[in-house]
Amino acid sequence: MPQPIFLWPQGAPDALGQTEADKPRLYPFLPQTRSTSTAVLVIPGGGYQHVAIGHEGVQIAAWLNAQGVPAFVLDYRVAPYHYPVPIEDGQRAMRLIRAHAAEYGIDPHRLGVWGFSAGGHLASTLGTHCDADAVPASTPDGADAQSCRPDFMVLSYPVISMQLPEAHANSRMNLLGPNVDPALERRYSNHLAVAAETPATFLFATTNDPTVPVANSLDFYRALQQAHVPAELHIYDFANHGCGLCGSIIPLSTWPGLLRNWLVQRGWIPLTAPPPPAPAPNLPSWIPGLTGPGKPAQ
Fold it and tell me: What's the pTM?
């Protein structure tokens, strides 16, 4: 693991304490050989209750690095934190990467986001609500002057809606609390916030996802289409949630190749980039020995 970059070295806004759980951070995975100036902010899922930083973070960064693409894995604050804290962490991460783009050797106008499950909700929030609807930063500095809107999005079996029954109930409760404000519920049902400015998006899901209804991906794709935003949707006739790159599930293990084709087609990585790694078993959800805000409760 690379050394973490703390989003707010002097203390995060709305912090409940000063423990590791109160210090959101980025892990920069910078490949030795670059194929592109594009970079990706990776947001693992976990129902806004924990952060699946292994197979939906570190393993995703390795997949990108193998193709010469820098990646930044976000470990963000989750329950007992709730709205607006996870969104603040996502916004700050995008701004911080852009503010230091020259140091990382990346183009601040070629920064995508890749989110899984509840991380897909946070990613799609960045794509639909930044910057006009952004939560104001409580500690403004040079980084906070940057845009928090991604230039493209990859959403893997994402949570999109906060409205039941389509919403993932645990993500909804952990983000918005047990007594949900109807205005927030609608505001963060992100398919309702798609506009012409929403970034081009790649979506992957399974028809019979047992955790997050496939309607989340369908509704977001339909909204993108109606707004004339370039979008590609791949739905597998399968029942799975949370498999990351799905390397051990033969019917699903082809989806990262489709994503690679889309990234090439859209110009985010060159056709000459090294090939992605072969499908492999998943890393554990949490990396043993690691600490941080997304560490699951014991």
Answer: 0.96
